[in-house]
From TrEMBL:
Top-rank taxon: Bacteria
Species classification: Bacteria, Bacillati, Actinomycetota, Actinomycetes, Pseudonocardiales
UniProt name for this protein: GGDEF domain-containing protein
MF annotations from Gene Ontology: diguanylate cyclase activity
Claim: Transmembrane helix is one of the keywords in the record: no
Length: 175
């Protein structure tokens, strides 16, 4: 019995990000293989907008707290069957199984972005937190995790570029 408990704890440790408690890339790969057998699957990939500024301004411990809070929001906001993942650094992913189409997946991503934007304080410090997210959907028979991650990553950088352009337009330039 003790060996079984140890094996379970070891397995959980190998599938979990130690900082945030979210699933890691290995867990994503396992869940993807399981879900692609049952229908279409989407993967969202995102990273924090302006994350370096948290570390530079408040230190790495504060940056870790931001990542932990984002992970809490993702864990709370994902639906049953969805899997939030910390890939590395300030990059996250969400496996979204059973989505009907790309528009549905994009709507789901906007919901997650909105939830993350609701983070307004970390350790008593006011913050503005946002995440660029891109999502890609594939039918079960052709779904490939590497291709999905790559395509979602490309879309995420498109989202990041659009949001950066909006921010630059919204900020008046000194004359």
């Amino acid at each position: 019995m003790a060996a079984t408990g140890y094996a379970w704890r070891y397995r959980q440790r190998t599938l979990t990000d130690p900082l945030t408690g979210l699933a890691n890339r290995a867990a994503l790969q396992m869940a993807f293989r399981r879900h692609r057998r049952t229908g279409p699957v989407a993967v969202a990939v995102g990273d924090m907008n302006g994350f370096k500024a948290f570390n530079d301004t408040h230190g790495h411990r504060f940056g870790d707290q931001v990542l932990i809070e984002v992970a809490r929001v993702l864990a709370r906001e994902t639906s049953r069957g969805e899997l939030p993942v910390r890939l590395h650094g300030d990059e996250f992913a969400v496996l979204i199984p059973g989505v009907k189409d790309q528009a549905t997946a994009e709507h789901r991503v906007r919901q997650l972005q909105d939830a993350i934007a609701q983070i307004t304080t970390i350790d008593g410090q006011p913050v503005e937190v946002s995440m660029a997210l891109g999502v890609m959907t594939m039918p079960a028979e052709s779904a490939d995790l590497s291709r999905l991650l790559g395509s979602a990553d490309d879309r995420m950088y498109g989202d990041k570029h659009i949001n950066r352009s909006r921010t630059e337009i919204a900020i008046p330039q000194p004359q």
